[in-house]
Protein: Short-chain dehydrogenase/reductase SDR
Amino acid sequence: MPSIFISGGASGIGRATALRFLSEGWTVGVYDVNQAALDELTAEHPQIVTGILDVRDFGQWEAALADFATHTGGTLTVLDNNAGVLFSGDLDEVTPEQIKLQIDIDALGVTYGAKAALPYLTGVEGAHLVNISSASAIYGQPGIATYSAAKFYVSGFTEALELEWEKHGIRVVAIWPLWAKTALAETDAKSTRTLGVNITPEEVAEQVWNSVHPGVQVPFLPRVHYSVGTLTTLLSNSSKFAPRSVVRLINRFTSQ
Structure:
């Protein structure tokens, strides 16, 4: 039976992803720092394996994956690096503690997760590492500068591992949602008003599902990045084909 381990999966996009894969008969592990949310998830879906995980601690990653592996025969099909945190505000308004927390969870935690999961993914048919990036990695976003920069890191990290882990038979992808209807979007970031909060956690979960079931791929042109929603796709394509000055103007408008 295929298996998926989801960090920060007790609510929002992670929870929706857990239920999407559970509905297909997968063995699902959800590990989070929110014990109350984990208890609620377990009460509703007792077949989901749950546990505590602070993604900033590599030792906890090792312990959580070892625990989940006792339910899967010692292997893992998909690691979903889902845990994330966001604090909005201009840089002079964000506290040093909030800056550090975003980098530690959104960048360091993703890196730790990938490293800890590698032994469990290696040699498994259909093995995937899924990293949750963001449309804020298309162009640096004022008002959420640290979060945006961390998601640039996630995208670059994904591209590097997509090449590096080819020898292990592990496919590495990134999911790019715009603002989704989760607690993360409960912010005063200006782009939430300009672009709206229209994507549901279920839409993101569906794209996670699609990303690990890619079908036929063009040789030497693997798909690495998966946008969520038409607007995200349009913004992403504009950044690839429009002059950088135009991309800057678009992002200046959306962040005002």
